Amino acid sequence: MKLPVAMALRLYNTLSQQVEEFSPAHDNLVRMYTCGPTVYDFAHIGNFRTFVFIDLLRRWLRISGFQLDHVMNITDVDDKIIRNASAQGKSLDEYTEIYTKAFLDDCAKLRLEAPEHRVAATKHINDMVAAIERLGAGEHTYASDGSVYFRISTFPQYGKLSHNDFSGNIAGARVDVDTYEKADARDFALWKAPKEGEPFWESPLGPGRPGWHIECSVMAIKYLGETLDIHAGGVDLIFPHHENEIAQSEALTGRPFSRFWVHSEFLLVEGQKMSKSLGNYFTLRDILEKHHYQPEVVRYLLASVPYRKQLNFTFDGLKSAATAIDRLRNFKLRLDTEQFPEGVNEQLSSRTTRACRAFHDGMHDDLNTAEALAAVFEYIRDVNSAMDSKEFRVGNVPGAVELLSLFDSVFDVLSPAPSSGTLLDSEVESLIAERTAAKKARNFQLADQIREQLLDRGIILEDTKSGVRWKRK
Ligand code: AMP
Ligand code: ZN
User: Measured in angstroms, how far is the CA atom of residue 241 from the centroid of ligand 1?
Assistant: First the structure.
């Protein structure tokens, strides 16, 4: 279908606090980094709101004509992981393997595309140590009690992402200064000395482990270069995580770290952020196994509210999402199975073009999924009545199918999930892409985990010269 000249994709940039036209800086390739999960437990559907948003962003960038080079990290060492692993008498690897596997399984169920690189923090410790040493050579760091801190006073632009004025905050935070032996309350740890009994890596900085912020800076720069096109995550990461990433990265390279910073709003429960610490959370497993919803219903619900609006999670919301999917599938069934009169209804053809245009405009408008969905549902309402009155003709079918396939290339909810235990072909492909990316990143442990995970679900992989082949047991 030929559409009138397209608007450009616009995204809200937290850095400039403006909606800006987006295109990558070089070639046609979008260099994108998104903060991934901390694998200390099952992810909840609040986390997946952010990961579904990232999936929509990926898909829409590609539909907009760009290629992608996307890195997502897995944080597989942090305080909570260390605490939980030691409580269960497991090594870090044994512990994080369980939740990494669970995360990948949930991603496949939610039909989240695999990023080009999925990278684990513990596989990049040497890179992190080298970066901290370079920051030290530039006098951006100091050591205190075996830990190494970033000295924020050496980065005068600190606060430019969160638009915080830190001058007033210092006094109130003095208690922290005493607790953590920091020179300034804002300073953050790059390298943490181990407490009694904690796991650590030997390094020229002394025994320890990396801080969370340095992980992302180092892996982003390693795989994508010094300046990214897009860096994304949930709004809770703006401060301090992304502010700290900017400080370290720009102190290291002297260049802007990312051109666009894109943040998704929270999933709420009764007005409060869904979070582990508040105990008001549902995992994907809870919703599928205890409440018997299909994963695509969760995907639809999370995708249907534009990412910059808060989304209040309710079971009524899930029911409405299920009804919306039924409507879409029934429409598709009508198109696939009904006999329509010969010919083309030109008016309906232009109605289809208008709907496609409106879908594109909605998505280009800072991924306004509500506008894009409205375009599809208004179209379905009009076409259903045109079918009832026999005005819809055989020649109108391809246009309607094209609109539905445009819709589904973003929302991906039309095909039903297979009965439990069986993976869809697209889920298998997505896990294989994850495994290929893991191998490319020399993360053979993750690659082996994925092979086992597929085997558990009855999928056998065969590595051949021409790529990976798979079959069902
Ligand atoms: P974490 O595993 O805690 O590092 O979080 C993974 C991602 O989930 C981050 O991008 C967070 O910003 C995001 N996130 C956490 N809670 C919520 C929530 N209630 N709604 C939306 N995103 C969230
Ligand atoms: Zn991060």
Answer: 12
